[in-house]
Design a protein that fits this description.
By secondary structure, the protein is mainly beta. The protein is built from no helices and eleven strands.
Amino acid sequence: QVQLVESGGGLVQDGGSLRLSCAASGIIFSIHAMGWYRQVPGRQRELVADITRAGGTNYLDSVKGRFTISRDNAKNTVHLEMNALKPEDTAVYYCSTGRPWDSKPGIYWGQGTQVTVSS
């Protein structure tokens, strides 16, 4: 059974930083692409960043240069370092993975963690 558990969300001021973490279990972590999505009420969930099995990364244009995704295969965790946060980054952030050997996440989801950036 795939389990993804996020942590690290919270309230931060405009320009601040947060680090999200996602602990995965029930999968062979090293053969899974991982990703972070976010969702605001009334809007579609969007991919913020993803990381392949080999460590290749992809980012939403609006977070490039501010957010960094990384993975630790020894600890079955994926992180999202968020710097220079803006009020428009406020959302529920979800960790996600796909099936084994998939190139993208988006099949399995964590419960989400709230990030609120105050102006």
